[in-house]
Amino acid sequence: MIKKIISSFLMPVPLSILISLIGLLLLWFTNRQRIGKIFVSFGIFLMLLFSNMATSNHLLRPLENKYDSSNTQLENRVPSESMGSIKFIVVLGGGHISDSNLPITSQIGEDTLVRLIEGIRLYRKYAGVKLVLSGGTGFDPVPNAHIMANLAKELGVNEKDILIESKSKDTIDEANFIKPIVNNEKFILVTSALHMPRSMAMFRKLGMNPIPAPTGHKVKDSQTLNPLFFIPNAGDLLKSEAGLHEYLGIVWSKLRGQI
């Protein structure tokens, strides 16, 4: 919890606002006008920088391109003759907000929804596999895995084919709690493309055998030049935030010896 709270203050929006506010305080209440102007200018510059598509794509592309996401490549990693040996498809949670006044499709987070859909797609493609849904409570009293399981059942997944891991608080927890479920078996790991490098490293560090199936790509190369791409916007600000969050997670995991 503390880790997540601290990291949130290092994201573009709160960081830019904090720097700009310091500058405004210096401008309004001190004689340090030059330093105040520098702080305000730097805060605005950061906001403009991280809300630009060039920046957000540059941050995300190395993460999302580390593992090929095409079905052909997935099948190359798992030859047809050994496809029957795959017993598990593991889907990592990505957040939700449980609100009983809303339909379940509105409660589940966007990243979680995309991951779950990909997991169900693969579940239907490879007969005889179990769908392992992972994710604990976090800031919500209802475990993320339970929300995913409820939606999966509504989308036609057999309840007997669903295994739930609902104790984890973060990715390393997920790896630790999933290991007793899959043991040393090869399994398909489904998570967001930008989150896949860190997830793969953590699972492999524990001696597990995941096969990456990244989804939810945020970097999408357009076939035509759109001048609006160069205008700062909230969408690319969110993409930059996601990328920075992942890089911070990688650094933290390396410091903790988790990858």
Summary of the model, kept short:
With 259 residues, the protein is an alpha/beta fold.
Overview of the structural elements:
There is one protein chain. The chain has eleven helices and five strands; from the N terminus they run H-H-H-H-H-E-H-H-E-H-E-H-E-H-E-H. Helix content is 53%, strand content 11%. It is elongated and about 70 Å long. The protein has helices at 2-8, 12-29, 33-50, 53-64, 71-77, 104-107, 110-125, 144-154, 171-182, 196-205, 234-255, and strands at residues 88-92, 130-134, 162-165, 186-192, 209-215. Helix 2 packs antiparallel against helix 3 (33-50) and helix 4 packs across helix 11 (234-255). By secondary structure, the protein is an alpha/beta fold. Strand 4 (186-192), helix 10 (196-205) and strand 5 (209-215) form a beta-alpha-beta unit. The chain has a five-stranded parallel sheet with strand order 3-2-1-4-5, with helices on both faces. The protein has two domains: 2-62 and 230-255, no CATH class; 70-215, HUPs (Rossmann fold, 3-Layer(aba) Sandwich), CATH 3.40.50.620.
Summarize the biggest pleated sheet: 5 strands, parallel
Uncertain spans: none
CATH topology of the largest domain: Rossmann fold
**What is the C-level CATH assignment of the largest domain?**
Alpha Beta
CATH superfamily of the largest domain: HUPs
CATH architecture of the largest domain: 3-Layer(aba) Sandwich
CA-atom Rg in angstroms: 21 Å
Helix percentage: 40-55%
Proportion of beta-strand residues: 5-15%
What global shape is seen? elongated
Mean pLDDT: 91
Report the order of strands and helices.
Answer: HHHHHEHHEHEHEHEH
